[in-house]
Amino acid sequence: MPKVRVEKLCTDLELYIIRVDDDQIRYFEATWEIPEGITYNAYLMKLDGAVVLFDTTKKEYTDLFMDALEKLVDPKEITHIIVHHTEPDHSGALPRILEENGYKAQVIGTQFAKNLLQGFYGDRVVENFKVVKDGEEMKIGGKTFRFIAVPWLHWPDTMITYVVEDRLIFSCDAGGGYSIPEAIDDSNEEVVKKYLPYVAKYIVTVIGHYHKYIVQNIKKLKELGIVEEAKMILPGHGLAWCKNPKRIFEFYEQVGAGVPEKDKVLVIYDSMYGFVEKRIEIVLDELKKLGKKPVVYRFTDKEAPAVSDILGEVPSAEALIIGASTYEAEIHPRIRYTLYEIVDKANYEKPVLIVGAFGWGGVAGRKIETMITRSKFDHVATVESRGYPSSEDEEKIREAVRKLVQWIS
Ligand code: FEO
């Protein structure tokens, strides 16, 4: 059952997280498999003469959210609602909160956010809307709130808030991740280690299409000096970062830039009747001889891994090996879809080796080659042949793996 956690954050401030733990969701954005669930984080800050709500939650959890919110404050007392990003996982409860608030609160966001909110929920939600520009500051409850645009993290509407005196960054999607961590913040290293792979998966599936903007925007925040000095980074999903805040943005930078883990080679293949699998056995044997650490995902008649999990592995791989059958004069459907998403969401300059098998005519290898050469990936070689691999095929595969490994080094 979804539940909501309300906790005071690790500070002397009157600052609370209202975290909805969504364990019912299966497909984020109706696409990405996340059996691990997700959280939607909103924050409430009580100041002198002001009560500020940072983002809300998904519409279907509005009742749950309102009950939690009312334990902290009478909604009528909320003076400001900051909308960092309008995607409905953060803005879905806004209309009801404003209704309960009597439309007294000033809603703050970018011009783009205003337009989107109006389009999603009608005129009423924007009748008391304050448009802020990149870098603009406002005094609220005796504190300085600086609003910084971070377009495409995740939509063009997106901004973060920096509370200058307290050195707090409210970052919405930026800094977020999938799963429902058992802790609220990063104080337990075991929790953080378990959580970070879900952050990589989140980054690629949700923001991956715009990953160059991750690097650009974090560079911008670093140049403003606020990443180094931040006492907390408070995202809209997953863990709040109190112990080592800059760590999450550094992790985002790494994923955004596709910084590889030493020796990790991602191997993805389908095998309907074992022809491709036989080739992959040769590939894995050669990789291991060369000291590489393959991470393998396979589609067979017994298993089908989540494409979202595969995508999360791409940024940290040194190289990719794609094994594919030719299927009705096409790439096998599961590999076709997986590759389409890799090229769209995890498009990095990394070397790729293609290993294919066919019955009466090889098509998959050529088609994959075309996809790869049109992307940022580097095509190293294609080795494709009929049925089970002959000893000659085996030597060609081993040679191609050696070429790939040489390419990496
Ligand atoms: Fe978590 Fe782009 O919304």
Automatic annotation (TrEMBL):
Which positions, given as ranges, span the membrane? none
The keyword Oxidoreductase is annotated on this UniProt entry: no
Gene3D superfamilies (alphabetical): 3.40.50.360, Ribonuclease Z/Hydroxyacylglutathione hydrolase-like (3.60.15.10)
Q: Which residues form the Flavodoxin-like domain?
A: 265-405
Molecular function via GO: electron transfer activity; FMN binding; hydrolase activity; metal ion binding; oxidoreductase activity
Question: Which SUPFAM superfamilies does the annotation name?
Answer: Flavoproteins (SSF52218), Metallo-hydrolase/oxidoreductase (SSF56281)
Keyword entries, A-Z: Hydrolase
**Name of the protein:** MBL fold metallo-hydrolase
